[in-house]
Give the backbone structure.
Amino acid sequence: MAETSATFRTALHDLHVEIGGKMVAFAGYDMPVQFDGVKAEHLWTRAHAGLFDVSHMGPCFLTLPSGPREGEDAHAEIAAIIETLVPSNIAGLKPGQARLTVLLNEQGGILDDLIITRPADPAQQGRLYIVVNGVVKHQDWAMFEDKLAGQAVLTRADEGNILVALQGPEAEGVLAVHLPAITDMTFMRCLPMRVQGMDALVTRCGYTGEDGFELLLPVVGGVDFVRELLSDDRVKPIGLGARDSLRLESGLCLYGHDMDATRNPVEADLQWVIQKVRRHRADFPGAAYILKDLADGPAEKRVGIQPLERAPAREGIEIQIDGTRVGVITSGGYGPSVDKPVAMGYVRADLAVPGTKIDLIVRGKARAAEVCALPFVTQNYKR
Amino acid sequence: MTTYYTEDHEWIAVEGDIGTIGITKYAAEQLGDVVFVEVPDVGADFAKDDDMAVVESVKAASDVYAPVTGAVTASNEALAGAPETVNQDPEGAGWFCKIQLSDAGQLSTMMDGAAYETFCEGL
C-alpha cells in the first residue's frame, strides 16, 4: 500500500472513526486500515458480508460533448473515443455491462486498471461510467482531458458521492432488503436504482473474489444508508488491510505493485482484457509491443507463488533458482482463508509453470516456494 | 527475577545473568495477528539494538531488536508451529529467546513495569 500524506477525507470518515477504525494515510486520504483486526475482517467477508469504503477511488463519467442520447450509434461513438486509450472491446459492451480494462502508454505499459461500464438506461447512451484507481485518479483524469479534448467531456463523480462495496456470500441478502432488483443481476452488470429517495448506481463486482456489489451513492442520504447496512448483523466494516489480503488470495492485481507502466498486459497475465476484435485491429497504444509478446511470449510473466514454509514473502523479495535471480515478488503476505503465506510476482516466462520450484530470499535466507496457479481461493462470482 | 521494558516494546526477564526476551502485550496488540516468528539460533551473538528476530503479522514484518548485548542460550522453537502464541501470551509462552548478558549495566536504562505502563499510556 502506497502511503502518502492524508489531505482528504471521504464522507464516511467520521463514521469510520466513530466505529473504531484505525486510520492511516492511503492514496491521499485518511482511511481505515482495520476495525476488528485484519484476519477477523478477512474471514468475516468470506463468510458473511463486509462493507468497504472505496470513496477514495475515481468514479467518473465520460460523455459525448453533445450529451447522452438514445441509440446504438451514440454508444459506438463514445466507445471509439475511449478505445484509443484502452485495448478492450468497449464498443461490444451490452447496455448495463461492465468490463475490466487497462489504460496503456505508447510502449504498452499499464498506466492503470479500470472498470468501464455502458449505461443500462437507453437515454444515457454516448456516456461511459468509469472507475479508476484512487492512487492515480488525478493523472488518469488529466490524461482523459488531454488526449480526449474536444471529443468527450469528463465529469468527476468522486466529489458529492460515496463509493462503497458490500462483499461476501451474504451481500446479496443484505442488499436485497433495500434493493430487491439486485437478485436478478449477474457479475459485471450495472443498473441505476432508486433507494431511499436517492439515485444509486449499483454494479455486481468487487475486489475480494466474493460475490458482491459496488454502490455509487450521493453523500446526502448515502452516509445514512451505509449506517443502515452496518446495522445488519450480517455486515461488518472492513479496512484496507483485509481488502489487500482478500484481493491477493483471489489473485487480483494491485496497481503500482503487480502491474505498472513497465509491464504490459501480456506480462501481467491480463491478456484476456484484449478481446479478439482489438487484437485484429491492433489499434491501441503500444499494440506492436503487446502483439509481439502475445505471439512470441513475454520475457517475464506474473504468476502465483506459494511459499512452502511459514515465512511470508513480501513485495520486493528476490526469487532465485540455484542462486540466480529469476524474478521478484510484487505482492505477498499471509492468506487468512488458506491459512498460509500467499504471494504473486514476476518470473522468467519459461518458469511460469505451476509446480516450478523456486527459492525466495527472505532476509538473506533461501526459503522454498513454488510457482502456482491463481487464485488461491475459489472465486464466488454470480455468473 | 526482575522484568525490564524497552521503548521498542520488548521485555526482558532477568534471572542471574540470563535474560528471557519477548515483545510486550502492547506490541502484540499493535501488530495484530502474528503469522510467523523468526527466532535467533542458539549460540548467536548480538550487540544491543542489533536485529535479533522478526515477527510477521497479517499486516507487515517487524524487526525485534536485541535489548542487551549477549549470546543466545535458548530460542523458543515452538513459535514456528504456533506463532499465534505471541498474541495469546506475549509475556509468557510467547517468549522469543534467552540471552546470556554481557553487560548487566545495560538494564539500568530500561523501564520497570509501572514506568512502561505510563510510557504506553502516553503513546
In short: The mean pLDDT of chain A is 96. Residues 299-383 of chain A form a domain with the Elongation Factor Tu (Ef-tu); domain 3 fold (CATH 2.40.30.110). The CA atoms of residues 112 and 256 of chain A lie 8 Å apart.
